[in-house]
Write a structure and sequence with these properties.
Layout (H helix, E strand, L loop, with lengths): L4 E5 L4 H17 L2 E7 L10 H4 L1 H27 L5 E6 L4 H12 L3 E6 L4 H7 L2 H8 L4 E5 L1
Parallel strand pairs: 1-2, 1-4, 2-3, 4-5
Helix pairs in contact: 4-6
Length: 148
């Protein structure tokens, strides 16, 4: 089995970087390209004219996007230096993380997803949900889950 295009969703967690290391190793072995995405969480103020009400929230959202873009740009440069021939990046906005990952999968036609999982169990998993679990259940391509 060979993988041509690997999708790697990332956030700031160490487990995301561990997943990225797996993606890099696989990509180097198969000559795969990698797309790194960062999904910005749904805005809790959707439908509210908070731009006038709370400028600090607007600044927070813009700073989060700027930080995410800087992080994935840095990851792209590192992958290129390490020998990955083609690396794409993307910021996904205004959807849940799982939806953003699955929509991007459909858009780019990747044939493997490699992502981290925080490994929450019990009530924490029930209350917080599991992005990895949802992606695993809905994906039509293999998903490699790197656990903490």
């Amino acid at each position: 089995m060979s993988y041509e295009h690997i999708l790697v969703p990332m956030d700031e967690s160490p487990i995301s970087y561990a997943a990225l290391q797996h993606a890099e190793e696989i990509a180097l072995k198969f000559g795969s390209k990698i797309t790194v995405i960062s999904v910005l969480a749904l805005d809790p103020m959707i439908g509210v004219d908070f731009y006038q009400i709370a400028p600090s929230i607007t600044e927070y959202v813009l700073a989060a996007e700027k930080n995410a873009q800087a992080r994935i740009n840095e990851v792209k440069e590192t992958l290129l230096v390490h020998g990955i021939q083609q690396v794409n990046t993307k910021i996904v906005r205004e959807v849940s993380p799982a939806t953003g990952i699955l929509n991007t999968l459909n858009e780019i036609g990747a044939d493997l997803i490699i992502m981290g999982s925080h490994g929450r169990k019990g009530l924490k998993k029930f209350v917080l949900g599991s992005v990895a679990q949802e992606v695993l259940g809905e994906s039509f391509v293999p998903v490699l889950i790197v656990k903490q």
